[in-house]
Amino acid sequence: MADLEFLFRGQPLVATPEGALWWPARRTLVVADLHFEKASAFAARGVALPPYDTAATLAEVARLADRLDPARVVALGDSFHDRRAGERISVAAIDGLQALTQRLEWVWITGNHDPHPAGPWGGTVVDSLDDGPLLFCHEATGVAGEVSGHWHPKARVKVRGSLVTRRCFVLTPGQLILPSFGTLTGGLDVFDPALAPLIGRSFEVLMCGRESVARLPASRLSPRLEREFDQDRRAGCARVEAEAGQGEPQDVGQLRLW
Ligand SMILES: [Mn+2]
Questions:
Q1: Would 230 be classed as within a structural domain?
Q2: Residue 57 is part of a domain; what is its CATH number?
Q3: Ligand 1 centroid to residue 247 C-alpha, Å
Q4: Which of 49, 64, 93, 149 sits between 20 and 30 A of 246, alpha carbons compared?
Q5: How many A from CA of 248 to the centre of ligand 1?
Q6: Which residues lie closer than 8 Å to 41 by C-beta, 6 or more apart?
Q7: How far is the CA of 78 from the centre of ligand 1 (A)?
Q8: Quick check: is 251 in a domain?
């Protein structure tokens, strides 16, 4: 795996292709929006999805913990898809989480999907975590230094003539937004007007490929077209009024995202 090093608030940080953040100075692994038990929440409403999302997401977190050897894991909220996820989660998944929370310092930050993420799986619950230059929270408020999740950002680039959409981090001088880590989570385009008040127009993205992370300014991304926002809105995805597209897509050539 080729991780990407970058600076945020003067801190050397690392973005991983899996979509996690690594803070070497504090040996802290950060993951956002795990959404455990999303599939079983849909199943309870009659929508059949393969019920393997919790196990797959948990296995990915465990693999990263083995690779990076953190002292602490911070989960940035919406770790559980809904308030009753704890009633549906398997004993095996609880055991797997316990193995991690007993070995590592584990912090659950509360999210809008999981305001009470405490349970037999262990870990400490807080609403936010202020750690020197960084402030970990679920949904950013605009305070400089926030490291947040919630939006599930994704971006689109043109690679050798084809449009490719991938999860991404969003980086500004004051804000760092993580992609969703859960295996069964959707995404919001970084040009969605809902994100503009927080990140403006001159943000950068760190796009997660299969083996590497690509750092790109917003100007090199493919814009979304107004009709695409309209489609999203009809599908219930977009939150506010859409704007016109931002110009012609640029081809970024040899970028490797697979
Ligand atoms: Mn959320």
A1: yes
A2: 3.60.21
A3: 30
A4: 149
A5: 31
A6: 81, 82, 84, 85, 88
A7: 5
A8: no
Answer whether residue 130 is part of any domain: yes
For residue 251, the CA-to-ligand 1 centroid distance in Å is: 32
How far away, in angstroms, is 136 Cα from ligand 1 center? Answer: 14
**Interval between CA 80 and ligand 1 midpoint (Å):** 10
Asked whether residue 156 is assigned to any structural domain, the reply reads yes
Cα 146 to ligand 1 centre (Å): 15
Tokens of 85: 């996820």
User: Tokens representing 205?
Assistant: 């993205």
Tokens of 209: 């490929």
Tell me which residue range forms the domain holding 221: 4-234
Claim: this prediction has a pTM higher than 0.85? yes
41 confidence band (pLDDT: 50, 70, 90): confident
Distance (Å) from CA 33 to ligand 1 centroid: 7
Return the ∠ at Cα 189 (arms to 177 and 24), rounded to 5°: 25
